[in-house]
Design a protein that fits this description.
By secondary structure, the chain is mainly α. The chain is 90% helix and 0% strand. The protein has a domain of 60 residues. The termini are close together.
């Protein structure tokens, strides 16, 4: 591979790593926003006598699923960033 080709590969690898880190960070931010917005609704439901008995269990399930979903995205994106970083450091001669 020529030095120009290697530079292009390194550039694209860097772009992929940057995007992966951004996706991981964005997933964590979106999770916090999602949970915060959902808590507003669940807090209202907890004040209504008819919905109070089920609001907490539903909140727990909702938060668990949301945490799992956003966590998987963040973990996969972080893994991709690490792969890009390792490939970048091992790919250079």
């Amino acid at each position: 591979m020529t030095s120009t080709e290697q530079t292009q590969v390194d550039w694209w690898r860097g772009v992929a790593e940057l995007l992966a880190h951004g996706l991981a960070h964005g997933a964590r931010k979106a999770q916090r926003a999602h949970i915060s917005i959902a808590d507003e609704t669940f807090n209202i439901l907890a004040r209504i006598p008819l919905t109070r008995p089920v609001s907490e269990p539903v909140r727990s399930v909702h938060h668990g699923i949301a945490g799992l979903s956003y966590g998987v995205v963040a973990t996969l994106a972080t893994g991709l960033a690490l792969v890009c970083e390792q490939e970048g450091s091992t790919g250079r001669s």
